[in-house]
């Protein structure tokens, strides 16, 4: 597996937390034994579930990012995403206690893929 930057891992956590199709795909890959790094997946699922915790009171992030995260949290409840993540986390083997609120460093203005569309591969700039 190629090295993943913390930003890419946070993007993946947002997708697992708030994009039902992405969580379903990750779960299916894990059940089929196609996950290259189970420890990485376990940590990323922990991050994804952490994104469903209470919003920070005084984040060191922009208001726009905080509002987007709040919108994501509210929309995810329609799909029962927190419950699905908790079940997936249990199947992976819990890693420990989660924080009570989303850490400020995780509050970022991250966009998600559009439902029903496969993200196109972006050409790398030189």
Task: Provide an overview of this structure.
- This protein has helices spanning 6-18, 20-31, 38-50, 63-78, 81-92.
- It is mainly alpha-helical and 126 residues long.
- α1 (6-18) crosses α2 (20-31) and α1 packs across α3.
- The radius of gyration is 14 Å and the shape is globular.
What spatial form do the alpha-carbon principal axes imply? globular
Order of helices and strands: HHHHH
Structural class: mainly alpha
Determine the fraction of residues in helical runs and give it as a percent range: 40-55%
Give the tally of β-strands.
0
- Taking Cα atoms only, what radius of gyration do you get, to the nearest Å? 14 Å
Number of separate helices: 5
Taken together, the total number of domains comes to 1
The main β sheet shows up as: none
Stretches with pLDDT under 50, minimum 5 residues: none
In angstroms, what separates the terminal alpha carbons?
Answer: 22 Å
Average pLDDT level: 87
Summarize it.
The chain has one domain. It has five helices and no strands. It has helices at 6-18, 20-31, 38-50, 63-78, 81-92.
What's the helix and strand layout?
Elements: H1 6-18, H2 20-31, H3 38-50, H4 63-78, H5 81-92
């Amino acid at each position: 597996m190629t090295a993943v930057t913390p930003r890419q891992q946070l993007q993946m956590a947002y997708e697992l937390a708030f994009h039902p199709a992405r969580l379903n795909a990750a779960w299916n890959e894990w059940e089929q034994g196609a996950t290259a790094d189970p420890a990485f997946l376990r940590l990323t699922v922990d991050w994804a579930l952490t994104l469903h915790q209470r919003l920070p009171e005084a984040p060191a992030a922009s208001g726009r990012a905080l509002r987007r995260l709040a919108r994501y949290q509210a929309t995810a409840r329609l799909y029962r995403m927190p419950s699905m993540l908790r079940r997936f986390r249990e199947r992976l083997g819990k890693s420990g206690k989660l924080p009570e609120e989303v850490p400020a460093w995780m509050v970022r203005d991250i966009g998600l893929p559009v439902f029903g569309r496969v993200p196109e591969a972006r050409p790398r700039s030189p």
